[in-house]
Amino acid sequence: MYSPYFLTYMLAGFILSVLVFLWALHAGQFRDQKRARFLPLDDGAEGPPVVVSRMNRIQGYVILGLACAGLLAMAITLGYSILTAR
Amino acid sequence: MSKSQFTAIQTNSTARGFCLTSAFWMVIATLAGLTAATELIAPDISGNVSWLVFGRVRPIHVNLVLFGFVTPGLLAAAFYFLPRLLRTELYSEKLGIAAVALWNVAIAAGIIALAAGHSQGREYAELIWPVDVLLVITFALLFWNLIMTVRRRQEPILYVSVWYACAAVILTGVTYCLGNVVWKPDSGALVGIPDAILLWFYGHNIFGLLLTPLSIAVAYYVIPTAIRRPLYSHTLSLIGFWSLLVVYSHIGTHHLLQVPVPTWLKVVAIVDSIAMVIPVMVFLINIWYTAKGSLGEVHADIGAKFVFTGTIMYFVVSIQGSIMALPQVQRVTHFNNWVVGHAHVGVLGFAGMIALGGLYFILPRITGKPLYSRFLADLQYWFVFLGTIGFTTVLTIVGLIQGNAWLNGEMIYRVLPELQIYYIMRAAVGLTVFVSALIGLYNIVRTLYFNPGEAA
Q1: Average pLDDT over every residue of A7-35
Q2: Which runs of consecutive H residues, i.e. helices, occur in B301-352?
Q3: What part of A 46-85 touches B (C-beta under 8 Å)?
Q4: Topology of B3-449 in CATH?
Q5: Contact A29/B228, CB-based, under 8 Å?
Q6: Which of residues B319 and B352 earns the better pLDDT score?
Q7: How far is the C-alpha of A32 from the C-alpha of B155, rounded, in Å?
Q8: What's this model's pTM, rounded to 2 decimal places?
Q9: pLDDT score of B8
């Protein structure tokens, strides 16, 4: 009979999550969200300069295209497979 | 503390340690995967060498990928960006180095034990009790270091990456204890159905509460930094974080739809699996809108390029995962190689890609020099990318053949010969990924220690 242990764990997790959420609310973590968007840009860690080429853009579109084609192919094969399975 | 002072005092020893850990274990992990794939083509190839049989090599591959390659790669990036986002220094680099050392001892001990035949025999929870304890202690050290850094922060707002990274470490520490039933050192397991429920709660959460939040944390840091644009919406990112916590933790039972677990638990698992679309799309819309119009800049930085591709793979694997939780779909896709293909998109294509992206993004920043070879990093990118596509295609086809054959009542001796050619292709793809790991290790070691490039 493990249900009491599972329930205890779930309850503990739920209470802890609520407590952390309440702390965040109280500590103003959900305020000033506009400034929060900029935090990674102001961390004092400059990387090497990047040179953008036309090829870089093309690579991006190729990968997106491949992902869409892959998803479409997967959806078609899965649909066909489920519909034809006896 | 001024920006220049802050940058100067960072030694990044912990991040460096995790970089090396990830690069090294990726080589061993992919070698184990290649060995296992070869044994599926030629089962007698390892002869009577006990530590090379499939039943031992496969868990070595899985555990090394999860805990040797991907997690340390993501932790390397986390230990780099966390102090920066909090505008302070890491609480203790010594503690960090101790954690890196302990982590490597645990992984090495676990692999030796698995090779020697000492296993708990539960998927993703094969590592034996002493190793479990070492890993839990390491998670505790990591969390202490992170949370104390948070306490000493000079930036009052916690950027979303900080939330994700801290949550991943503490939640996994706890889930690891439970999933490996550490209070039962002799077996590391419960009995019967409760054990299956607990195991898949843990098994899926290794992905959902460790790899996913750490990967998202890295993506939320790398993409805006690389293209020098603010995040599209921080509010949206926090909605994604809290909804991930609510939804992801109960979906493990979708692995057990064919098992006599309580129906209400199956329903919860299926509903939440579908609801995963919410945190997934919140994250993807946010990160893609941030990168909108800057695809050129994303692909000009090799780290961001890896990470961005990882986000696309996340889209694929998440949509797949939600659909796969439906019982009607599982009739065809469960208990066969479809699931293995799904796991490869998730762990290699999504989390692995982002881990490598994190490494390549931070390396020039922690060494102050450009990468040893951008060409080799690009080569590794294409090998891993094509490897992921190859695994997905081949294993999906094999899975559909197996699933349909099972549904149609085909005999196994008629099906196995049909699969042989795909297993050969799978091993070929595995060889590609193994070569990419060797390239990565060479490039990373050269960048860290033998880099002739001029300081930026």
Answers
A1: 90
A2: 302-324, 327-333, 337-344
A3: 46-48, 50-54, 56-57, 59-61, 63-64, 66-67, 70-71, 74, 77-78, 81-82, 84-85
A4: Cytochrome C Oxidase; Chain A (1.20.210)
A5: no
A6: B352
A7: 12
A8: 0.93
A9: 47
